[in-house]
Specification:
mainly alpha, about 0% strand, globular
Length: about 90
Amino acid sequence: MNLLEGIERSKSAPLDRLLHAIGIRHVGARIAQILAEHFGSLDALAEADEVALMEAETIGPEIASQRRRFFSSKTGRKFIERCARRG
C-alpha cells in the first residue's frame, strides 16, 4: 500500500477512531465511541458547548472541558481545517 492509498483509506475511518487518535486528554476508545455515537460528526462535536457534551452518556465536566480546550486551541482549529480540506 502506498501513502496515497493510506490517506484515502483513512478518510473512511470511523469517527470514534479519529477521536481516539487525535489525543484529546481523557478521550480513550470508549469515550471516543460515545462521543461519535452522540454527535455523529466531527463538526457537530467541535461546535458543541460543554452543556451539550455532558448530555452524552458518561461525559462529565472534565472530559467536556478537555474537548473544549482541544477544539478551541490553535492545534485543534488547524486539525479541523485539515480534515475539512481532505474530506
